[in-house]
Write a structure and sequence with these properties.
CATH topology of the largest domain: Rossmann fold
Strand content: 5-15%
Number of strands: 11
Low-confidence stretches: none
Shape: elongated
CATH architecture of the largest domain: 3-Layer(aba) Sandwich
Order of helices and strands: HEHEHEHEHHEHHHEHHEEHHHHEHHEEHH
GO molecular function: transferase activity
Keywords: Transferase
Number of helices: 19
Distance between the termini: 48 Å
InterPro entries: CoA-transferase_III (IPR050509), CoA-Trfase_fam_III (IPR003673), CoA-Trfase_III_dom3_sf (IPR044855), CoA-Trfase_III_dom_1_sf (IPR023606)
Number of domains: 2
CATH class of the largest domain: Alpha Beta
Protein name: CoA-transferase family III protein
Pfam family, one: CoA_transf_3
Length: about 400
């Protein structure tokens, strides 16, 4: 077992890695946050008006002040922040200078804007072949939709089939959970970057890494995309699941229970005896997977009548005793109070510059021997511009000239 002192002395996993992040909103910035969590120096470039997440959090009741801006915070913790006007040639040159000793260029900027600023892959690769160019896309870099604007609402949930697959047959689509697809795509990009980084340690060469929101959805729905070839189509009704005990049930207290009954024949006797106390169902047409698939909706109706007799905690106790996988359907409010989250540091308390203490989620990839990493607040707008540029030998005179031209803040 590693001591607490030993945890403190360990070198950070990505210590010495430098990331230049030229990204906005969520999908690529969350990649930068993860890399920063693991010790990389992540320098976030913003325009003078700032990343959009600094301003739009009010849609989810978030404050949007500089001293407490949760939407920006959750995607940008641990980074250094600088302001550069990339519309000016001098702005692009500042980025080139930052790339001299960097390892990764991270962006989700649309291709036309990158081409216009001279920050496209071809230009950067020719100048700096050591750079890993990580591009988070909407729909991929080929095909008729490659230049379409994209958010996870559109490229991931809508075109990617996620929203339609999650809706109940015959009802309206579910409300998309903002940033869900962004975070999955961002983690995929981190994985690609680390593979490229490993190769770079051997060859010295950087390369282009791309991940798209659309492809992330297709990959995530892979089971159902493949099943569609065999006539299994989404959406489905909760009353017509793959098997009648792989669905949700409403309990007497109006709370919902999810069952995951994947070893049907093995678990069915215990389910009858311990959970619902219906030994009469053993040996019936409902007792084997082979026979129950022919009467799924019928058996779901029977089970609905059983589960609605008692509150959810009654059923949880019995399912736990029977060893059958289940969970309550939790809301985000429930998650905030979930002891499993707090026991494992899935959630932590942070203190904003405002003095307010709030809850924040953590990186889902953990390294237990290293303990809980220190949480570093996201940067104020342009907070580190002078510090970062002086590190690459920009003189006071040069900085003053760039400020006068409004290239930097």
């Amino acid at each position: 077992m590693v001591s607490e002192e030993g945890m403190m002395q360990k070198r950070k996993l990505l210590e010495g890695i430098k990331v230049i992040e030229y990204a906005n909103f969520v999908a690529a910035p969350i990649s930068g946050r993860v890399l920063a969590d693991w010790g990389a120096e992540v320098i976030k470039i913003e325009a003078a008006f700032g990343d959009t997440t600094r301003a739009v959090g009010m849609q989810w009741n978030f404050p949007t002040e500089e001293d407490e801006c949760p939407l920006f915070e959750m995607e940008n913790a641990g980074k250094k922040g600088i302001i550069i006007d990339t519309r000016q040639p001098e702005g692009a040159q500042v980025i080139y200078d930052l790339l001299e000793d960097a390892d990764i260029f991270l962006t989700n900027t649309r291709q036309k804007a990158l081409d216009k600023s001279g920050l496209d892959y071809k230009t950067i690769h020719e100048k700096y072949p050591h750079i890993i160019y990580a591009h988070l896309l909407g729909y991929g870099d080929k095909g008729p939709a490659k230049d379409n604007p994209a958010f996870d609402y559109t490229a991931y949930f809508a075109r990617g089939g996620v929203a339609a697959s999650l809706m109940e047959t015959g009802t309206s689509p579910c409300n998309s959970a903002a940033a869900l697809g962004d975070h999955y795509a961002g983690m995929n990009l981190v994985a690609g970057v680390l593979a490229a980084l490993h190769n770079k340690t051997i060859t010295g060469e950087g390369e282009k890494v791309t991940v798209s929101l659309f492809h992330t959805a297709v990959f995530g729905l892979g089971l159902y995309v493949n099943a569609a070839q065999y006539g299994y189509n989404m959406p489905i009704s909760r009353r017509q699941p793959p098997n009648p005990l792989n669905t949700t049930y409403k309990c007497a207290d109006d709370k919902w229970l999810q069952l995951a009954f994947f070893q049907y024949d093995k678990w069915f006797p215990g389910f009858c005896d311990i959970v619902i106390e219906r030994s009469d169902l053993k040996g019936s047409k409902y007792s084997t997977m082979k026979s129950v698939v022919n009467c799924v909706e019928e058996f779901v109706g029977i089970m609905e009548q059983e589960f609605v007799k008692h509150p959810i905690d009654y059923w949880c106790e019995r399912l736990q005793k029977a060893g059958i996988p289940f969970e309550k359907l939790q809301t985000p409010v429930d998650i905030m109070k979930d002891e499993q989250c707090w026991a494992n540091d899935f959630l932590i308390n942070i203190k904003y510059r405002s003095g307010n203490e709030r809850v924040m989620f953590t990186n889902p990839v953990q390294f237990p021997d290293r303990g809980t990493p220190e949480y570093v607040l996201s940067p104020k707008l342009g907070e580190h511009t002078e510090e970062v540029l002086k590190e690459i030998d920009y003189s006071d005179k040069k900085l003053a000239e760039l400020r006068e031209k409004k290239v930097i803040n």
